[in-house]
Amino acid sequence: MKIRSYSRKVFVTFLMALLLITAVNLVSAAPNQIGQAQAGGTAVIHAGTLNVRSGPSVAYPVVAATRWGDTVTLLGRNANSSWAKVRIADGREGWVNASYLSSNTAINSLPDLSETAVPDANARALINEGVLNVRSGPGMVYPVVVAIGNGNYVQVIGRDAGSTWIKVVTHTGHQGWLNSIYTTMTVPLSGIPVVAIPAVPITPIEPPQPVHPIEPSGATAVINTGMLNVRSGPGMAYSVVSYLPYGQSVGILGRDANSFWIKVQTPAGPMGWIHSDYAQMNTTLSALSIIESTGVPTA
Fold first, then answer.
1. In the chain, which residue ranges form alpha helices assigned H by DSSP?
2. Residue 219 predicted with pLDDT over 70
3. Residues 103, 40: contact at Cβ < 8 Å?
4. In a domain, 181, yes or no
5. Residue 157 in contact with residue 124, Cβ under 8 Å?
6. Alpha-carbon gap, residue 231 to 87, rounded angstroms
7. Which of 72, 104, 205, 238 lies deepest, with the highest CB count within 10 Å?
8. Considering the domain boundaries, does residue 182 fall inside one?
9. 233 by DSSP, 3-state: which?
10. Residue 24 within a domain
11. Which helix (H) or strand (E) holds 127?
12. Checking phi first, is residue 8 left (phi over 0); if not, alpha (psi -120 to 50) or beta?
């Protein structure tokens, strides 16, 4: 009887020790589980097959695919919360359309990772009008970095929040901003990531310089296209002040520093600028004097 009683005590003691160890493990695991829940929520895929892309748009290439019922970890979102960045079961990360997620966390409460999206290597823009200035920032207040002509392609690497300006790299390696109105995109503009905007440069105010009348150069040009706009300055951003029909002859006053535009005296009186590609001149561009523009762009 004493032996049986002793065995029972040993068994009870062992059982209590086992329960104590289990309880300690559960308590120590709880903080880790809570920390994981706080670090980021999860979502369940509610689509037959949902593509995971390298960026927040269908313009980006597919890097993986998920199926109905798969659980993914939420990492972030784009600016308007229409796409979510996720980590799938095998550890790969990418972007999915948030409309097909059933989430335990509000998508708009996730960190905005728009600026971390990698630009699509196929995102290019075709210059579709005149000569376009590439500026150091998204606005007319930023200085011109370089000018690029009609028919050229540029690599698109970003955009501003309003999608009015795009950040590009030219074929010469120059980086800057273009007005998207004058381009044709090869991918949807909404799929281009929003990037940081440089500070607006502060330009010192200089006293006005005396205006000297421009003497005619003696050179003339004949318009060789349909109806040509005469603008207040050497660029598509300047306002139209007159029009010249095909075959019209005008006097040439000078050219801009890039030799893209020439300043002319129209028969009706107004002086203005026309693109040199659309005029047949009786002289060379290099023979003309450079005239600094005094007008202010309007676009």
1. 2-39
2. yes
3. no
4. yes
5. no
6. 53
7. 72
8. yes
9. coil
10. no
11. strand 124-127
12. alpha
**Which DSSP symbol is given to 194?**
B
Q: How many residues does the chain have?
A: 299
pLDDT tens for residues 39-76? 468 999 999 999 998 878 776 778 899 999 999 999 99
pLDDT at position 36? 36
Query: Above 50 in pLDDT, residue 218?
Result: yes
- With H, G, I as helix, E, B as strand and everything else as coil, classify residue 144: strand
Q: Please state, in angstroms and rounded to a whole number, the distance separating the CA atoms of residues 282 and 265.
A: 15
Give the CATH number of the domain where residue 264 resides.
Answer: 2.30.30.40
Work out the average pLDDT over 145-174. 88
Q: How far is CA 225 from the centre of its chain?
A: 34
- Amino acid 296: pLDDT: 57
Let me know whether 48 and 100 are in one domain: yes
Residues spanned by the domain of 260: 220-287
Domain stop point among 113, 133, 152: 113
Q: How many domains does the chain have?
A: 3
Average pLDDT of the residues in 176-190: 89
Distances (CA, A) of 69 to 30, 42, 65, 94, 191: 26, 12, 12, 18, 27
